[in-house]
Amino acid sequence: MSGELKESAGSERPRPREPDRKDDGPPGADDRTDAVPEGLEDVKVELQDAGLWQRFHKAGTEMIITKAGRSICYPFPFNVRGEEPPRTRDTQFTSLPKNECSPNRDALSRICGVSQLPTWNQDLNWASPRLKRPFLQTDFAAQPLPALPQADGSSPTVKIPSMQPVYIRRMFPSIKVKVTGLQPKTKYIFVMDIVAVDSHRYKFNESKWSVAGKAEPAMPGRVFVHPDSPATGTHWMKQVVCFQKLKLTNNYMDTFGHIMLNSMHKYQPRLHIVQASENNKFELKKTCFRTFVFHETEFMAVTSYQNHQITQLKIEHNPFAKGFRGGDDTEFSRSARKSINYPVIPRSNPVQASLLPRGRPNNNYACSSNMADTCPSLSSNHYQQTTAGYNTVPLGSSIQMTTQENSGGCMQNSFSGNTDLGPLPKRACREEDRLLSDNSVTTSTLTTWSNPQILPNMENLQPLNRETCMFANSANDNTSLLAAPQPLDPLSTGFNNNQNFSVPFSSSGTGFVSNGGMNFLPSCSYAQMPQQGLGMNGTPFLHEVSRNVGCPSMQIPQ
DNA sequence: TCACCTCACACCTTTGAATAGG
DNA sequence: ACCTATTCAAAGGTGTGAGGTG
């Protein structure tokens, strides 16, 4: 591939060619070239399920980002045993005496790296039906909490701040791509981020989206690193690469590395293919990465669906929404009947995954889905699930990401970590993905640049596990990710140099893990609020990404 | 009043440990 | 002992709709 701008087949609007970078490049990025990075010249990326995406795009894709949902993460990502708190439907809240103090607020604050804990709720404490008891302080302590005065010598009970469970949502459709043209033995890192399309806030009025004002301050930028990363070109090319477990939230306090978006704003996912070093040190070659954009994956972030057509499409195609499909006397049917104007789209004939035999799935996918059934060659003995996937990285582990200014005035970012690189598993999508695939593909709009300072140099960052790995940026201070992040100035450079901040390692979901659960790491600092015309109206991503360079160093809280 | 958000809910799929059988 | 297939309860994902909030 010669670096030409390719148009997405799903695009409905003309996309200008990428402008001359020398005119649009960021300050301090003068040394980049127009040359396609070596090893990425021939990369082609095809969007799977393009037909489905186009249907959504035509109707105006919406993605739920509200806190509502059933996937619950907890503000305390680990306990001393490396276990996560119980979750989801097993989670209950039990009352404690109102006057019981919150004895370890300071300790919890320190552990979580949060300077300001949310308001305490004196009435609530998490309890586990399994444990048959309220959580003890040791359940949540990354390190021993100060002993509490207990007259009877019993284990002290820790009051948990009333941080709500963090509800998150996946994207649907999820982004799946087929990649070709990679160097077979070269290792690559697949990264996805979601950037605002413009600086507007929208409203849905009279069955259409219209600008409702200026955009709200951008959420802190985060990126989703495919859990297979780094992997060889052969690995990436032999399977469809899925970003199924990319999750969205509007929770400003999100501490789990989920991508945070503003409701009623328009966003564009982007795929970055970053060339890593050939060893297991996860060292990125500074200049080798390319970005791919599929314009039909643009979506509006909403807390509840605005367009009934989108609702219907989701119901029709998402297996988890099967219960709302028409036909029988389902809730959806009842709802549909109650809604006079509800446009009922004739039901298609989706093949139900549940009707397919269980067993070994197709392994021609690289998903962020679980690994147990996606790794035929790996039994569960190879991928022991932690209690629930939390704290899979020793607390003593650290990942360092440092920012240095090079001679050209650009920021160079680096990561470092100290965990082992486990075997690279085979991966596969769940059946739903294969079933949903309509075999249609779209070649992305390609934006490529070779700025050595844009993406982090992940020196020595070994894949802590094969699960979701997120990179979350930080504010311009030393606050933890667990602290309320500060909105980035859309036009600021985003970060100061050589700063440290704490990084929680956490996870969600039930995935098998090799070396831990999902790990969420601070990100390189992508612009969350792009400059005018970001990607969607011709301004190259080069311009946007390059504006935010530099990453602070980070460290696991000790 | 309105737009937007939250949350509990029912329904469904997926997961993965346990078990059975070869 | 090992492997594969099956079972099933738990976990997780979905949109709904009433109610809350500003």
UniProtKB/TrEMBL annotation:
Domain T-box: start-end pairs: 47-85, 169-326
Keywords: Developmental protein, DNA-binding, Nucleus, Transcription, Transcription regulation
Keyword match Ion transport: no
Location within or outside the cell: Nucleus
Gene Ontology molecular function: DNA-binding transcription factor activity, RNA polymerase II-specific; RNA polymerase II cis-regulatory region sequence-specific DNA binding
Domain of life the protein comes from: Eukaryota
GO CC, one annotated term: nucleus
Region Disordered: start-end pairs: 1-37
Any Pfam family hit: T-box
Protein name in UniProt: TBX5 protein
